[in-house]
Amino acid sequence: MTVLKIKLSKPSLIITGLLIIIIGLSCKQKTQAQYAVEITINSKTTDSDLMKSEVIAPLEKEILKIEHVSKIASLSKKSYGLIKVDFKPNINIDETILNLQNRIQMVTMNLPKDAEVIISKIVENPKVVELKISLNNADSSSIDSTTMKTNIINPLVKQTLEIKGVHQALTFSKNGVGIVRLKFYPEISEYEISSRVQQKLSEIKTYLPKKFKIEASKVWDESKKNKNN
């Protein structure tokens, strides 16, 4: 999970952007790249009325100027505010996030001094591939989980995050077997994902210790798997 902090001209005011949250939703229609953003505002000195009128309202006004916004909803209470923005399908979300940050920066100078604004990007219906790393022709229990994670899994994560379209890599390690779960943006086809993963695995195998083997699962749609479960 990557968190980008941008310090503004007010020393006490910080925007934290690109906190990536993955949500798998059931979808009966063809999978589309659906995106939403949650903007959380924390300010201990602001009551519910001021949060609504002096924080939420001006932020919403700027957000509505962004292209491709389909719906916006908000709530406010003492010391806390939340704005959820839904976007139209298949947009360039990274470009939209940058535009959103710029819009919010235009408002932040007028927010309470202790305000902290957190932008969370929500990716729905991700496609997933799991990489399984284990000892080659040996008892996997002969290597402990800590060694597996430190010496094998962590370096692999850095490499797999270079694969185009990956927005998150989760890791698991148990009984000498390591798992790297890669989550891709949903608009990327299964064929493209498989090709990119196999190309990266070919590179990884050139320096992976020979006593280890690495295998990739088939690509699956997380929302469909959650529905079946």
Describe this structure in words.
It is a single chain. By secondary structure, the protein is an alpha+beta fold. It has two domains: 121 residues, 2-Layer Sandwich (Alpha-Beta Plaits), CATH 3.30.70.1430; 102 residues, Multidrug efflux transporter AcrB pore domain (Alpha-Beta Plaits, 2-Layer Sandwich). Helices cover 32% and strands 35% of the residues. It is built from five helices and eleven strands, in the order E-E-E-H-E-E-H-E-E-H-E-E-H-E-E-H. The strands form two sheets. The protein has a six-stranded mixed beta sheet, with helices on one face. A hairpin with a 2-residue loop joins strand 8 and strand 9. Helix 1 crosses helix 2. The longest helix is centred in the C-terminal third of the chain and has 18 residues. It is elongated. The N terminus is likely disordered.
Quick summary of this structure?
By secondary structure, this protein is α+β, with helices and mostly antiparallel strands.
Q: So, the CATH homologous superfamily of the largest domain?
A: Multidrug efflux transporter AcrB pore domain
Summarize the main sheet: 6 strands, mixed
Question: How many individual β-strands?
Answer: 11
Helix/strand/pairing category: alpha+beta
Order of helices and strands: EEEHEEHEEHEEHEEH
Which strand-content bin applies to the residues?
A: 35-45%
Query: What gyration radius follows from the Cα positions, in whole Å?
Result: 21 Å
> Counting H and I runs of at least 4 residues, what is the number of helices?
5
Mean pLDDT: 80
* Estimated helix fraction: 25-40%
CATH top level of the largest domain is: Alpha Beta
Biggest sheet, spatial arrangement of strands: 1-2-6-3-5-4
Q: How many distinct folded domains?
A: 2
Shape: elongated
CATH topology of the largest domain: Alpha-Beta Plaits
**Low-pLDDT regions:** 1-12, 17-31
CATH architecture of the largest domain: 2-Layer Sandwich
From the N-terminal CA to the C-terminal CA, the straight-line distance is 26 Å
GO molecular function, one term: xenobiotic transmembrane transporter activity
InterPro entries: Acrflvin-R (IPR001036)
Pfam family, one: ACR_tran
Organism: Pedobacter kyonggii
